[in-house]
Amino acid sequence: MPSGLEVLVRVVVTGAGGYIGSRLVPALLGDGHDVTATFTKASSAQRFWWADRVRVVEMDVLDRGSARAAFADAQALFYLIHGLGGDDFATTDREGAYNAAHAAVRAGVGRIVYLGGLVPDLPDADLSPHLRSRLEVEDVLTDSGVPTIALRAAMVVGSGSTSFEVMRQISERLPVQVLPTWMRTSRVEPIAVTDVVAALVGALDAPARSRAYDVGSGEPLAYAALLRRYAKLAGLTRVQVSVPLLPTALVSRLAPVLTAAPATTVQTLVESLHHDMVCREDDFRRDLLPSGHRLVPVGRALERALHVPGDGVADADRDVMGPLGSDADWAGGQVSRSDGRPVHHRHGGWRGLLLGPPPSS
């Protein structure tokens, strides 16, 4: 793997409290990097076992001054800030990206690494608002002149990942799955969160030139087939019924009712599903992953995402594909795996398994 920068130890991770960021920070620490982790509120960093091993900085990316202060002396920047909710998330994302790019230039940052969404082979005008915004952020960062490496992922598999949790919760709550016909033909290429993290870390040593990489497992499959595979591994019996001409807009309005995730987040994600979300190249395997790295197969990734360790296992010792105590409160389902077999829980999924049933009212 070619080396872009000879010394790269001072790293800023924006969005460190998010799903990807919270799993990236330990990997960077493990490689010996000096990590600054940004949070909207510094006090929230205490949820993470690694908080006392990083420099915690309070930053609002919409405030250019606080971004400049956070990026001071940084050699590399991981930009993991995304907006999924609200009527004007695209404007907010654009403004945040401009501020981050400006601050990176002022600080002399040598590299920006960005995680965005896999882009279907369509004109920009035909992309969903979510994907169009991700692509715009990528363009803003790249246009800064700072070498920018963008990773484009479709569905990230791991307990706590928004896209995985939406699939999990819809599967558990719908014994009969009424699916639009396109879900039997449109394909998605999932990728395990461990592989995403490995590629992000590897981007620090990639050639120092701006480019985007599609990242995936190499196993594209139809959305309906992915739902069936999940149901089988979770020990669920589910019937799928295809409905021709079922509008995507209607599906996006109904899906939030079936999940505990924020409604606007679910709507935004579902609107991106209508077209193939598969990799058009796999250069990231050569340029970003360490020699000998083997991608996690989709089935194995689903199994690991469902697995819950026994009581008393600290987050630092858990498989990052499984649940962590710092994950969003709405994450988790009614099914986990123990010793390779599905376990169905009466009370609140893995949190119920660890904490016991809720108190009676």
Automatic annotation (TrEMBL):
InterPro entries in UniProt: NAD(P)-bd_dom, NAD(P)-bd_dom_sf, NAD(P)-dependent_oxidoreduct
Every NAD(P)-binding domain range: 15-169
SUPFAM superfamilies: NAD(P)-binding Rossmann-fold domains
Region spans: Disordered: 326-361
Coiled-coil residues: none
Source domain of life: Bacteria
Pfam families: NAD_binding_10 (PF13460)
Listed name of the protein: NAD(P)-binding domain-containing protein
